[in-house]
Specification:
Blueprint: H1 3-18, E1 23-26, E2 29-32, H2 46-61, H3 65-78, H4 83-98, H5 102-115, H6 122-137, E3 143-144, E4 148-149, H7 156-167, H8 174-187, H9 191-204, H10 211-225, H11 234-249, H12 259-284, H13 288-301, H14 306-320, H15 328-333, H16 369-372
Antiparallel strand pairs: 1-2, 3-4
Helix pairs in contact: 2-3, 2-4, 3-4, 4-5, 4-6, 5-6, 6-7, 7-8, 8-9, 9-10, 10-11, 11-12, 12-13, 12-14, 13-14
């Protein structure tokens, strides 16, 4: 073997020995993953620690809670900073969850997420956090010390879902956490959180199986924000856009079947808002130019809508008679003054005392008047 080959072999051996410890659960027992080095010191204690972990797990399954807690606590105290500590945190958190001590279970998971991001069982910890959020969400009662009933707190599930999104944003449960949080926020009337969760699904997980549901919910939410054609229509048009995205990207989804009717109704509402403005300018403000502008905007926004047909009628009325019909107020107080057009913007001079710009003329001063002062 030449020198290069020997050097390469030695480097590989060093890398394999320096690989981080990885404890895995196989065949009903915890073992050290082949190819990884134990981080337990001294290494001779590794087998004893693994047996202690197995014993603690068996006691937890048999619900010998006191004995199980004693072993988990012993591991946490003696194996701080190692993979064995992560296993102990996860095992104790599971036992806490079984006893209804949800706060304690969450605290153990927080410690695991903070100090053991590379733990082989990290996905199992995330799953347990998701299960805890479900317990909160379902309104399961917490128990202090494992026996004393405490208050329910379904909204706390939102905090746990948020933690999952922070520690595992690309994990399998990220999308599920978002949609569960959105549903919970809707039930609890937390509109801002509801909106945020839906927006995150649509923007960050556009290919998710929950994207159609999120788009439908977001479209309905935006549609409900408009109070009618007499108010701002930005949310109405945004709702129509969400329905359009749902129909274009997920045409086979059952939710997309109602998109066409929803878009038609929403665009008619937005077009009617412009029609109402046109009528206001025509009947109330004696402004045919602004009225025609709004009527044409109505027709452009939704050409096939009922509002567009009414806009055409209004345009025909303005074309037929340049003056709007007089109201009772107009007959008593006079018609509303029509705005100046671009051709008559120059003020008209009134009398010889005003100049061409409408300012009062001043008598020319004598050359010596300033000097006298």
């Amino acid at each position: 073997m030449n020198l290069v080959a020997k050097t390469f072999l030695a480097a590989c051996c060093l890398l394999s020995l320096s690989a981080p410890a990885e404890l895995v659960h196989t065949d009903g027992a915890w073992r050290l993953q082949p190819g990884t080095a134990s981080d337990i010191r001294p290494a001779s204690r590794t087998d004893a620690v693994l047996k202690t972990i197995d014993q603690a797990e068996n006691l937890s399954i048999m619900r010998e809670d006191r004995a199980a807690f004693a072993l988990w606590n012993q591991l946490l105290e003696n194996e701080a900073g190692t993979d064995a500590e992560a296993v102990a945190l996860l095992g104790r958190a599971r036992l806490y969850a079984l006893r209804g001590q949800l706060d304690n279970a969450e605290a153990d998971l927080d410690a695991l997420f903070k100090s053991h991001a590379n733990f082989a069982g990290f996905g199992e910890a995330v799953q347990l956090a998701f299960d805890l959020a479900g317990q909160y969400e379902r309104g399961e009662r917490r128990y202090l010390g494992g026996w004393f009933p405490w208050f329910k707190d379904p909204l706390h599930a939102l905090t746990v879902y948020d933690k999952i999104l922070k520690v595992a944003p690309n994990g399998a449960l990220a999308e599920e956490s978002l949609i569960h949080a959105a549903r919970l926020a809707e039930r609890e009337d937390r509109k801002e959180i509801y909106n945020e969760m839906l927006e995150r699904i649509v923007s960050d997980y556009a290919a998710s199986k929950y994207a159609p549901e999120a788009l439908e919910r977001l479209a309905k939410l935006r549609g409900s924000e408009s109070l009618g054609p007499d108010f701002d229509q930005a949310s109405t048009l945004e709702s129509a856009d969400h329905w359009r995205t749902l129909a274009d990207q997920f045409p086979q989804d059952g939710r997309a079947r109602q998109s066409a009717d929803q878009i038609k109704a929403l665009r008619d509402r937005a077009a009617r808002a412009r029609l109402n403005l046109g009528k206001f300018y025509w009947y109330k403000r004696n402004n045919p130019e602004a009225a025609k502008l709004m009527a044409n905007a109505c027709r452009s926004l939704a050409p096939e809508s009922e509002a567009a047909k009414e806009a055409e009628t209004l345009l025909a009325e303005i074309q037929a008679n340049p003056n709007p019909p007089k109201t009772i107020a107009d007959r008593l107080l006079g018609a509303y003054p029509r705005p100046r057009t671009a051709t008559d913007t120059k003020p008209a001079a009134v009398g010889d005392e005003l100049d061409a710009l409408g300012f009062r003329k001043e008598a020319p001063k004598s050359p010596t008047e300033t000097e006298r002062r």
